[in-house]
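dumping the sequnces here before i forget
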Amino acid sequence: MNRRDLDQILSAAGRSEPLDPELLDRLRGRVLSSLTPVRALPPSAVFATAFLILSGAIAVAAAALAGIGGLLLLTQRECVAIFGVLGSIAVLASLATARNMRPGLRSVPAWAVFAAALTAIEGVFALLFHDYRLTGFVETGVPCLRAGVVCAIGAGVFIWLLVRQGFVVAPTSTGAVAGVLAGCAGLGMLELHCSIVMLPHVAVWHAGALVLSVAAGALLGRMARYQKPA
Amino acid sequence: MEAYQKGDREAANALIELVSPALYRFLAIHTGDRRHAEDLLQDAWLRIHKARHTYRAGERVLPWLYAIVRYVKVDAYRKRRSEVYEQSLDSAPEPAVADVENRSDLPDLETMLGHLPESQREVISLLKISGLSLEETARATSSSVGSVKQKAHRAYEKLRVLLGEHA
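..and the predicted 3d for all of it:
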């Protein structure tokens, strides 16, 4: 049996059957009883821009509250490299999150966004910072991680408020890419605020805020899937 | 679709009549149970109605519709998992899809497709039974065209082996 034979069998099985009229009536009843005009969702680019501005604003606001000691220690080259990479990751995550709000739109897979984000940020840290000491690794790291995660949570709440305007058919993936975006806010705040430039510290604790944010986003997305629809 | 978004009852009615048979067929293939497929179809239309604001004018409708229906199907499958297939196999529910005519020497469609992994069954039913293109199937399943092609190829190989064994 060749492929053409298989196609014929499958196509024959696909001949349309009329639906039970009672079923059609039930479908009509459910839809027409609550039919009102709706305003179409704005284009994905609008939401992507909103996400980007939101995460940037939250990172800057949080750093302004906590202090910008980190920014004052960075050279111009380091600033451009770190915030350039962070901005690029945020753009990618913003676009992916926005596209996940509409069914039937292809988007970059969540695992690819996360892998690109982590690789890029760890790569730029490895290139820029050459202090490999572990002085006060845990004592200084945990407060940094906590601050980054809190900032990411704040960004995540606002991102979620926007995302729920759409209709998400892949909640775990959407939660993960939204987590990357929120994590960028947390990571951005840490780079502005934290004055520790030891590579182990930034590679583990600063990037750890991104990792935890992605994990939390994916988990929340998965949990949301099992909630009853409104 | 745009008229439906604007609250046009005739457009909504026409859309329901036009696409519901194909959506039902898709659900029936994956559940193997007429009643369950009907329940899922009603649930799907509730979600489609709720999500109608997310359709973008000018975009293809089928990937949008099938992405939502697929979401409903996956949701139901995760909740009922093996219970659905045990019921469908053991208690012989009403067959949901008509057997292929004039090929009585072949297993029916459900049996054939039931041997495929879920992802391959989904791709084959969208491509060959629902009539979506590769691009549309990729959009409806949130995957790439390459992944869809690979799954379809593997599904064909399995079906060929299955039908060879049956013969």
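Chain A has a mean pLDDT of 92.
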